[in-house]
Amino acid sequence: MVNNAEKLQKERYDLFDKLYTGQIPKRVPLGHYVYNPFAIQFAGYDLFESQWDTAGLLSKACDEFCSQVFTDIVPVASTIIPYPYQVLASRSYKMSKTGFMQHPELAGMEAEDYEAFIKSPFDVILEKILPTLFPALDTDPVTRSVNMAKGIVAYREEQTVMKKIKSDAIAKYGYLKPPANSDSGGVKCPFDFLADFIRGFGNILTDVRRYPEQVLEACDAVLQLLIKKATPSKPHYLGTTSITTHMPGFMRTKDFEKFYYPTFKKMVETFVESGMGVRIFCEGDWMRYLDHLRDLPENVRLRFEYGDPKIIKEKLGDKQIISGLYPISILQIGTKEEVIEKAKEYVDILAPGGRYYFEFDKSAITCQGNMRENIIALSDYLRDNATY
């Protein structure tokens, strides 16, 4: 006898199978989710304590959220877990006084290190950048090895817990279950990788003017390393490799076309050619770049933070899969009626003809204001009314 969770899972498999292959599912799949801190606040647990008790309080918070908010995917995603980063005395990720993990602006190497990085990025990452970002590795070889081992063990322990939370939710609530080993998590494209971890936001924008050839060569040098990191052992279009973009909204179009887009496109094409499902979070305003996005392989999943939904649908809706745009801010300050009316507005524009699933415009990290009641009401409405 098929239980309800198994029935739902089969229905959801069919929804996403059709969505990702250019067909029209029987309804709009719901792909919205929140991060750990949101689920913790939603459930009423202490933010600090829960992030250090992942197997206990965090697990309970995630189950509480799953039991009340309808989605078609596991609706709680992991943010940066503090324990492994504390072990390594991390400078790149720190917990703020409010309990949220933050990524401060910093540089892992100086401009004069470009030549060495271009020659062997992996060696420079190991020998210079990691010790800069994680001071526990900036010590003698024996201590460094011990600290690295501690960090790896801590990371694997927490990842094991998060995987169990996810697998338990899939079994209990019948969420979409991608084929085994087809998800690879997230990756940065080369230019964003340089901006986020290697040179820093401000420095990289200076580098494109002062050291343009070195920036181009550095992007080329690190491309294959990032592709290897993000390629799952068994690629499948129902799995996901997520590319989060940071810099395009702050770049001149000509700089985007010269420094960002070439290796970005190569990365996406390589992933698609391997059979992977590719999801791109277009942070900021990508309206200038819609023609570039159209030039990517068919059925790439594009989540937009900002933009005109009518123009995006017109330019991309017959080739790429669109999500995002729904303003998460309305969940905090709006009434239930306003939240639902806004959802209807976006569904009416983006759903006709297919290649659309529902998702928020931004990451849902904090559960404040009216968000608890509104996200429940929104999800129930979409479940019953979001069709093509």
TrEMBL record:
Domain of life from the UniProt record: Bacteria
Biological process (GO), any one: porphyrin-containing compound biosynthetic process
Any one Pfam family match given in the protein's UniProt record, by short name: URO-D
Listed SUPFAM superfamilies: UROD/MetE-like
InterPro entries, per the entry: UROD/MetE-like_sf, Uroporphyrinogen_deCOase
Organism: Oxobacter pfennigii
Protein name: Uroporphyrinogen decarboxylase (URO-D)
GO molecular function annotation: uroporphyrinogen decarboxylase activity
Ranges where the Uroporphyrinogen decarboxylase (URO-D) domain occurs: 185-354
